[in-house]
Amino acid sequence: MPRFKGCVRDTRAETYKPGSEEFIALELYVASRGNGLSVEGPSVRN
Fold this sequence. Notes:
Blueprint: H1 2-10, H2 21-34
């Protein structure tokens, strides 16, 4: 959630309360989009 809160703050949009249904739904959506994707980080890049 900190990442989403920072994005909302940086765009000067109205934010949701921490733990709100909207933030939870957003987190679940983003997590579902990443299901099955390979993990890439600095130690595994080619």
